[in-house]
Amino acid sequence: MAVLPVAKVGNPVLRQLARPLDPAEIRSKAMQQFIEDMFETMHEEEGIGLAAPQVSRSEQLLVMGCPGEGGFPDTVLINPVIVYYGPQQEEMWEGCLSVDGLRGKVTRPSMVRVRALDRQGAAVEFDATGLFAVCIQHEMDHLIGKLFLDRMADLSTLTQLEEFDQYWRKEPTSVI
Ligand code: NI
Question: Most C-beta atoms within 10 A of its C-beta, which of 28, 30, 124, 142?
Answer without folding.
Answer: 142
